[in-house]
Amino acid sequence: MKIIRIETWASTRVGFVRIETDSRHEGWGQLSPFNADLTAELLHRLLARRTLGTDPIDHEQLIEDLERHNHKFIGTFLYRALCGIDGALWDLRGKLEGKAVCELLGGTPDPMPVYASSMDRKRDAKGVVETLKPWRDACGARAFKIKIMQVNGRDVDVWPGRSEDLLQAMGTEFHDAALLIADANGGYSPDKAIEKSRLLRDCGFSLFEEPCHCQDIPGTARVNVEGVAPVCAGEQDYDLVRWQMIFDANAVAVAQPDLCYTGGLTRCLKIARMAEKAGIPVMPHASNRSMAMLYAMHLMRAIPNAADFLECGIEGDSGPGAPLEPPLRMVDGRVAFPEGPGWGIQVNPDALETFRRDHYRESRQA
Ligand SMILES: [Mg+2]
Q1: For domain 103-335, which architecture applies?
Q2: Could you give the CA distance from residue 40 to residue 355 in angstroms, rounded to a whole number?
């Protein structure tokens, strides 16, 4: 069996990849969200030619070859594109064997407990708490995440006192939650983060996400070791060498690779094994309900060191992945796996029509 055709549909926000074989089997994957039109272009320029004509079974070698061959282009966009091909090939293999992706890896697609994750930095403490309450009361969520400080803010808050007010309000309203996470998106210096970790702990927060700039591994390690709230981080990191540095430095208590940013399930499984060796659980970054969340669900059901909860973004219904059917929904605090082999989802062709106008390309075997 050979791959004969690769198609992409992309908007600026999200893009999808369809791979077809000479036996007329197909698989669907997703490019990394954000600037997906650029990523699709890169996929056809850098990755398509070496992918066409290869055997789609046991595609781990292909993923490694594509990375090695593009050594001059190592960087986020390479992996953002690679996750589209990797995702489509896992879907294809699942469909060929009649299994969900996690079943191919020895796992079972049991519903996944999730935490309700707010991206909101515009509302005040009362507003954020009111937004999260229905996710507890109507959807059964037992775990929550909120955003504090300005993104990469050098110790500057969105407005003075917002983060402190929000931490305290969350601690009061959600004092019996199973997990509270405060995500600073790199907003603090290490010293200020260590100081603030006491407030997180006193308000009942169990995890301090990305306290310092993502490139500051030593500073993040200081917060994890010297602070009193354990650190989770890693969503920006795609490089396996940097991941080993993160584990060696004891920079995180929980690892948060993003399956799209890291190039897909195949490479993220390697990061999960590195984390397992370090005795660290994996809680993938999956902030919108696109295929990124599906990828993460299957990873977590296939590894022994998955954390207890997966991220579920609460803003918007389906995030940038609107063409997916069925949409992923939280019921009783959990998200069910769509039934069916591979990723278990269909890409809605009506929704793709708007993508086709936006940015459509295909590569075929000559
Ligand atoms: Mg984050």
Answers
A1: Alpha-Beta Barrel (3.20)
A2: 12
